[in-house]
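Objective 1b: paired records.
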Amino acid sequence: MDFMPIFTYHRLTAPSGVNSRFDFSVDAFRSHLEILKASGLRCVVPEDLRANGAQAVENSVMITFDDGYETDYSAALGLLAGFGFRAVTFITANLVNKPGYLSWEKIKELSKAGFSVQSHSLNHRFLSALDHSELLNELRKSKEIIEDKTGVKVDYLAAPGGRVSAAVVKASAEAGYSGIFNSKPGYTLSQESGILVFNRFVLKNSIGARRFRNIANKDPLALISESAAYSAKNLIRKALGKK
């Protein structure tokens, strides 16, 4: 199925606090929101797909945040609200209340404000490297804890590191998820083992405005470039024996 671009962010920070290639300054994130708005795009969350079906995909993007950093609340929430946008926060259950991460109270506030609250596993382990029992524990416990602590229904999972295999998809279905998000660039939505599999563009702070705009507007050349980089990274990982 032809689908919308899905963007993955991690931590937002002041320009002086950018310590990782996955950290984005607040100003850089704001510029992305401005590009989306100027392009006539709106931001949806997975729940919109159930309510509006294919119509939710038209002229839309999805913004996701992995790990559950505190800046989802202190920085992203206000910026997104200013543009009339919503987003998904994928929570690593055992990182909640740790320094730099969201508290359960703030996660509940995000949910009330329109964020979709979903799972990023229990301990942020690479799921494709786990045996079946470990995998089910990571998936089930995270879902149970987040639902118990927040009162929201958790239906979707973002795999840590984007590492998704057929076994991970099958276990996610067994654990009760409706969909799983990977880190493979693309504009398609597929179904495997009875659940939805979402592709995502994982953004690094080296991305320029033009490149971001091209991805948001589904430029075929942008997809070719992103896919080539993703494939090269996977080849290196496999050559090193990593799952």
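Objective 1b, second protein:
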Amino acid sequence: MIRTRPIALLLLLLIFFGQTTPQATAQEGLTGFEDRRVMVAARLEPGENIDLDGILDEAAWERAEPAADFVQIDPDNGAPPTEPTEVYILFSENSMYMGVVAYDSEPDELRGNTMLRDEFLGADDRFMWVFDTYLDERTGYFFEMNPSGAMGDSLIGGAGGGGGFGGGGARAWDGIWDAQVRRSEIGWVIEIEMPFRTLNFDPNAQAWGINFQRTVRRKNEETIWNGYQRDSGGLRRMSNAGLIVGMSEISQGVGLDVRPYLTGRAKSSPGRGTDTTYTGDTGIDFVYNVTPSLRANFTVNTDFAETEVDDRQVNLTRFSLRFPEKREFFLEGSNFFSFSGFGDAFFSRRIGLNNGQPQRIDYGAKLTGQAGAHDIGVLQVRTAQDVSREATFWARTSLYSGERGACSPNPTLG
């Protein structure tokens, strides 16, 4: 906890990184990636649209080259899959589209019992994929679906490989994307739309890291597109990802989200001669992409009424429970406050609590993302004064510097 006001540092960083030329990335060329499998994304022609219905019947899908020839991880490591999978990728200026054809010789035996968002899908058939949008082999995005259309997503890694606030922040992150699943006599098909504004990325990158994995649960069969060796670390290890090339002239749009809120309450006591009293509150959040790789968050008079409640836990130990972060302001860019070997820079669930009771947040500001070989995280939050606790400034700054594949964090924590 710090009582200084480092908001000036945040403003200076916004000005500096907002005015720089497009940053250099770890992949000036594709040297060092010669052993990766490569797929090519196809651009939608002017006037072409994708109808998200789970049927790949648009002419554009015919132009896309599929990622196929998956390899078994289990049970027969290195063998061809018993049920083939093909993945197609299209893109427009603002969105990426994925078409997944999961062939199955027994479509009546597909398992898709889970329907809750972000629930673990390990008991179902499922298709999973990851993006390494900076090609730094350290950070990324994870997504998964089952044949019933259940969706899951999370952040991968962080500044050196951490997992987010409290160990659960990564899974609590929810991206903006849509998908439709259709079962048929050939198996099941997924059609996905992924707006580019959901992801942070370098628009000048020559390639992204990408990988796919499929589970056929009744056979306990796991197949993957790249990196099938048992000691390779699996889908979530970004150094296993293949490459997707061909995406150019893509945009996150204006890059500004505004999220206002307004609450109100009226109270009266009929028959007592008292007037009706009215109370209310208002606040606003701003999310702005300073660059495609740096995201700024501002919040004023923050309200977390829409946040999902915590899971009920029974504590039979002498240690305090550590609930994962679920508040959107703190989840955005949470992986940039973790360091390999150092753990989380701080536990964000302490912010906005006073002896276990909610404490209002006056305002907060945050800048997270990447600039060149640097991961950046700057946070300042001011909680409101109440009868039992004075107003408090929470400030944290983190800086990670490292080239692709390096794990030598140099954190600066305030």
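The chain is about 5% helix and 35% strand. Helices lie at 7-19, 60-63, 169-172, 328-331.
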